Amino acid sequence: MSYEKDQEEEHFLLRQIAEELDSEPFSRGMCTRFPPEPNGYLHIGSVYAIHTSYMAAQRYGGEFHLRMDDTNPLKEDAAYVKAIIEDIRWLGYDPGRHIYYGSDYSAEVYAAAVKLIQAGKAYVCDLTPEEMTNYRGTLTEPGRNSPWRERSPEENLALLEEMKRGEHPATSKVLRAKIDMASPNINLRDPVLYRIIHAEHYRTGRSWCIYPTYDFAHPIQDAIEGITYSLCSNEFRDHRPLYEWVLKGLGIHEPPRQREFGRLNITGVVTSKRFLRQLVLGGYLDGWDDPRLPTIRGLRRRGFTPASIRRFIEETGNIRAQTTVDITLLEHCARQELKHNTVTLMAVLQPLKVTITNYPAAGVELLEIENNSENEELGKRVVPFSGTLFIEREDFMEEPPKGFHRLFPGGEVRLKGAYFIRCQEVVKDPHTGEITELLCTYDPRTKSGSGFTERKVKGTIHWVSASHAVEAEVHLFDRLLIHDELPKEEEPDWSLRINPASRTVLRHVKIEPAIRDAFPEEHFQFIRHGYFCADKELHTQGRPVFNRIVALKDSWKKPEGK
Questions:
Q1: Could you tell me the maximum CA-CA distance found in the chain, to the nearest angstrom?
Q2: Which of 13, 79, 363, 414, CA to CA, is 20 to 30 A from 229?
Q3: Which helix (H) or strand (E) holds 244?
Q4: pTM
Q5: Amino acid 4: pLDDT
Q6: Which CATH class is domain 28-261?
Q7: Averaged pLDDT for residues 161-169
Q8: Apex 386 CA angle, 381 and 387, nearest 5
Q9: Spatial distance between the Cα atoms of 122 and 117, rounded to a whole number of angstroms
Q10: Quick check: 468 and 381 in contact, CB under 8 A?
Q11: What H or E segment, with its residue span, contains residue 64?
Q12: Which of 115, 273, 381, 393 is flagged as catalytic?
């Protein structure tokens, strides 16, 4: 079978796979996998790996497997498993029925260890972890053979069985591959295949007290599932010889092939599992779904859509080596995704009261305003207009600079979709001097759509009828960290690194009544303020809460003085 190579396809890995498949190395269909360790939540940095494996399977009509790498009971939890499955499906990379667990292959992996021992390719070693490190050598010096390296297969089999029965304490013994302690690739210097861990496993309970390492279990699990390509980031390139050694040593027919791609790093966010745990468990953030986090759950709660995240991954392009991409690219992708598909509403974040003195005291008009200027298919909505309104506090200045085209004393502006108003008087608090109200007049001839041409105004501002407004809470976000560079310390003082302006909460926002029936995770554009999403956890009709996903243009900046 010949696979056509699309000249426009720029992904080097897909080209490499296409060339290899032309030689028909497999009698089975294409099959890839994503093997997350369920000891944390997926984040934006994980999505490139998921996307690469999923799209490779899709391109060649194959299967995509999700397999939990759950061979370390000390760190794993069923809650992480549930979250990983939910997040991958939400992103659009649904593996369907192909969800597997490495721990389900425990018997097969153990049998593989027995086979290697019988072939003289593995042995039980009694060196302590510290001694093993000393024996391993360095990048410039070869390692030394373990004094237990020449144990007979019979003795090794008996010891492995004792380890399996729980007769030895943790760290007292390990099973190692017998390869080459002088290899320039340190991963081939008799790596550990099994270690003793006396702990409850979330899936298998106490059935096992020895667990395989990832490098040993992974190729065996791939072979069991019929994986053709194990696609992983470049950090595993030096592990590929061990992957191939295991498969060859077990005599696997048509073995899976490991191929690597570049690792994606993103500025302005933390993707280290260790640091994420410190931030969440240390109480610096509100949980794994805090909208400031780059976890998939955090991005979802913030309001990013699956399509915008996938578009971000596609926009990063062909990654051969470690690549750093600015997080503002994700914001751009969100804007591109939302601008044609969301209803635009008027929301006043910092309200200033406006009374139109010549408007009928009890008067109310229902005005028709378009829902999206770039998409007529979204239609129009009815917006109530009355003589008492709220406008943005920043849309008025007593002493405006040159070029200020909004409202000022004696000045005139158009209210979006409504009338011209002119400021006649400014009301202030007698004690503080703060402006509390503007007294204005309106020109009834200037209603939008009336064709009035006697005069024009340069400024148009948004507004909300005071008696019809829905009061809401709005969360605005900026970069989580003051500096992009991540700390080198194991446990940094995060209180000195978190941007104090990373989240701003506004509690008395006024929004037009069309927002009243919004449901959690529904998206909107608020005029001039950006794209917002009803908070997945906090939003109710009785307590509307909206997160700003992105501003209308890149607004992320370093905190002042930094």
A1: 102
A2: 79
A3: helix 240-249
A4: 0.90
A5: 44
A6: alpha beta
A7: 97
A8: 155
A9: 5
A10: no
A11: strand 63-68
A12: 273
Query: How far apart (Å, rounded) are the C-alpha atoms in residues 137 and 185?
Result: 11
Quickly tell me which residue has 């770039």 as its tokens. 374
Q: Same CATH topology for 28-261 and 347-462?
A: no
* Distance of alpha carbon 529 from alpha carbon 525, whole angstroms: 8
From the candidates 178, 263, 297, 310, give the one annotated as an active-site residue: 263
CA dihedral 447, 450, 451, 454 (to 10 degrees): -40
The listed CATH number (3.10.310.10, 1.20.120.550, 3.40.50.1820, 2.40.240.10) that belongs to domain 267-342+472-550: 2.40.240.10
- 8 pLDDT above the threshold of 50: no
End-to-end CA distance of the chain: 59
Q: Is 263 a catalytic residue?
A: yes
* 490 vs 430 pLDDT, higher one: 430
Could you read off the pLDDT of 253-271 as tens digits, one per residue?
Answer: 999 999 998 888 888 788 8
> Residue 177 to residues 113, 191, 306, 493, 536: CA-CA distances in angstroms?
9, 6, 43, 41, 49
Catalytic residue, from 15, 20, 37, 536: name it: 37
Q: How confident is the model at residue 317 (pLDDT cuts 50, 70, 90)?
A: confident
319 — pLDDT class (breaks 50, 70, 90): confident
Contacts of 312 (CB under 8 A, 6+ apart): 44, 329, 330, 333
Closest CA to 30 of 64, 66, 62: 62
**So what's the pLDDT on residue 243?**
98
Partners of residue 259 on adjacent β-strands: 231
What topology is assigned to 347-462 in CATH?
A: Ribosomal Protein L25; Chain P (2.40.240)
Name the band, by pLDDT with cuts 50, 70 and 90, for residue 10: low
Place of tokens 């003051």: 482
Separation in Å, CA 243 to CA 246, 258, 431: 5, 8, 76
Domain ranges in the chain?
A: 28-261, 267-342+472-550, 347-462
User: Could you confirm whether 273 is annotated as catalytic?
Assistant: yes
- Which helix (H) or strand (E) element contains residue 122? strand 122-125
pLDDT over 60 at 230, yes or no: yes
User: How many residues can be counted in the chain?
Assistant: 562
Kindly tell me if the per-residue pLDDT of 6 is higher than 50: no
Mean pLDDT, the chain, as a whole number? 92
pLDDT for 14 equals 84
